[in-house]
Amino acid sequence: MKATTNTPEPIVISSTLTEDGAIPLVRVHHRDWPEIHAEGESVETAARNLILQFQKNVDSSTDRWKCEAFRAAMEEVRSFASKCS
């Protein structure tokens, strides 16, 4: 996987392929949470999928600090996604 942007933006975009290597995908993650990532056929779809991943983490976390950090990251991803559409 090769990063396609070196900007200080909160969202990191890279390209990848499906497991069989047949379909190109876009992978995105928040710079503060690289372990939480999502893929899609477009940047916008991947960003929407990333919001869902963060929501799952909020729903399953009992740590109030992490929930707030996840929510802040979600807002940055939402802002980014709105610029993609």
What does this structure look like?
The chain has 85 residues and is of the alpha+beta class. It has one domain (2-84). The chain has helices at 43-60, 64-84, and strands at 2-3, 11-17, 24-30, 33-40. Strands 1-2-3-4 form a four-stranded antiparallel β-sheet. The radius of gyration is 13 Å and the shape is globular. 19% of the residues are buried. The model is unreliable at 1-5 (pLDDT under 50).
Strand content: 25-35%
Percent helix range: 40-55%
The total of helices stands at: 2
Based on CA inertia axes, which overall geometry fits? Answer: globular
**Helix and strand succession?**
EEEEHH
| CA(first)-CA(last) distance | 25 Å
Query: How many discrete domains?
Result: 1
Structural classification: alpha+beta
Tell me, rounded to a whole number, the average pLDDT: 90
Low-pLDDT runs:
1-5
How is this structure best summarized?
The protein is an alpha+beta fold and 85 residues long. The chain has helices spanning 43-60, 64-84, and strands spanning 2-3, 11-17, 24-30, 33-40.
